Amino acid sequence: MSAPTLPVKARTPIRPARVLLHVFLAGTALAWLAPLLWALYAALRPYGETSTKGYVSWPDKLSLDNFTNAFTQSDMSHYFGNTLIIAIPAVLLTLFLSSMVAFYVSRFDFRLNLFLLLVFTAGNLLPQQVIITPLYRLYLLIDLPGITMSGKLYDSALGLVLIHVAFQSGFCAFVLSNYMRMLPHELTEAALVDGASVWRMYWQIVLPLCRPAMAALGTLLSIWIYNDFFWAIVLISTGENMPITSALNNLSGQYFTDPNLVAAGALLTAIPTLIVYFALQRQFVSGLTLGANKG
Amino acid sequence: MTTDTNGENPEAASVPPPGAGAPPVAKTAAKAAKKAPRGHQRLLTRRDRLTLGVMAGLPTILHIALVWLTALASIALAFTTWDGIGFDSIKWVGLDNFKELFSTNPQFWPAVEHNIVWFVVLILIPTPLGLFLAVQLDKKIRFSRVYQTAFFLPVVMSLAVIGFVWQLVYNPDTGLINSVIGANKPGHYIDWIGDPDLNLWAVLVAASWRHAGYMMILYLAGLKGVDPSLREASSLDGANEWQTFKNVIFPTLRPTNTIVLVVTIIEALRAFDLVWVFNGGAQGTELLSILVTDNIVGESSRIGYGSAIAVVLLLISLVVIIPYLVSTFRKERRS
After folding, report:
1. Cα–Cα distance between A232 and A78 in angstroms, integer?
2. pTM for the full model?
3. Which helix (DSSP H) or strand (DSSP E) does residue B80 occupy?
4. Which residue of chain A has the CA closest to B181?
5. Would you give the DSSP letter of residue A7?
């Protein structure tokens, strides 16, 4: 009646090398978090106290006042709203458009396919500053009276959505076409023989199968577009219309005498991305590496 | 940007089609199967073709109009002067913008140099650190997830926010460093952000802080693809940890290394947000991207001149992008 000998050897002896490794990793991790913890500590302390006692000192009082002040005084909810108006359509449109291109490129054998994919992929690798000058002029030229608040493509949420979609669809088309290529050809061939339309093949067969890749890309895009600073700085001129990251830049100019408040504002700005990251960690990481490694 | 923004992908491209490497009979069968879609295309109705045209055409028009035509326009404008007011004021000036840029602009060569320094620092410090961390975390140790999250957190945050967070560390009178080392008294300041000899390095610490986590994730993904039997074989042969890494693991990471190199070069060329928030690219931290932006956002709109800087940036990027894409797509065509 011998019991299975499995769990007995689970406890491995403590090896000094392992302990050393943990000490090293824990130390480095702590050092890595230090700037963020420092910002948090500063944000939790009232400005009056730090200005008399200095920043490196024991706190008399910790409170969330800086956070509530930063949030209400600077109308952050408004800027978060601006970001949502830009990011949600941009992410959805990018996924939609790039999946269509990927479908075209990967499921059919047209002559132009490889070239088309090359155009998209290369476009995404360009530094944004290479195209900004003419883009800025173009945005000023395009009149959209009544459609956008500014009456132009410039200084509008629509303008930012369009450039995000155009720029990011390069990356997504490339990743999705690789993903779609791995789906068995028989699936769509059978549908074609049965007389299904091309649109139906895309919408009802291929797209549902791409859900994992779409989820990963969606997470990645949300974070990238939320974090965008450059397009917003150049293509939005009215403070009111700015998304949160570039609005923060203005606010810090306003409040630069109170670093505690700036710290609170910066941390508040980072919260949505941190939530998305912790909630969808797996998708985020697989999205990053979907581009870099096999499936 | 971000940044971001890239991590493209040679590997997925090189996934062999099922059937590659199989006996010749299966190979011809696979070939026949590959040819099939072309035959089936005859099944496409006119409406299907129209649908496909719209499906591929719409995104392509948007992408080409906003990315490629503007890139071409940058090149054209680089040979002109234009104040941006009315098309009549566009004047062809040939190479004048470039001549001025290369000879008289005091910020240009420092900017080129800083972009190069940016790349060299990123590839020499955070990249090997990221690889080292990845190798350690790949050992299936406890709390691996916790460590991973700590190193990766900066990658999730906006570079602009990172700029603000690091200002709290560098600020001359209230910052962490000066407070700790006692350099926060007037007259004894170490001005990390204002001193042109220091500020580039200060920004690069923040940039490296973020880059290491990014590289760690890419290498972790690469390490997952290493065949465990290779490791076993190597330890049976009596190789120690370092020998195994050097002779067995690292060579198999070649595809990841390529991506890491491309990502790092592109990040170095794109570097912008952090510096813009830090000190707007004032003395000591000039970058090509900042110079381009200054010509648009600044009060004097010198479009031709700004475009000339953009063209320099474009040419440097293409030197990296073209060979990378050629090798990636060559693999693609083969499969």
Report:
1. 15
2. 0.87
3. strand B80-81
4. A56
5. G
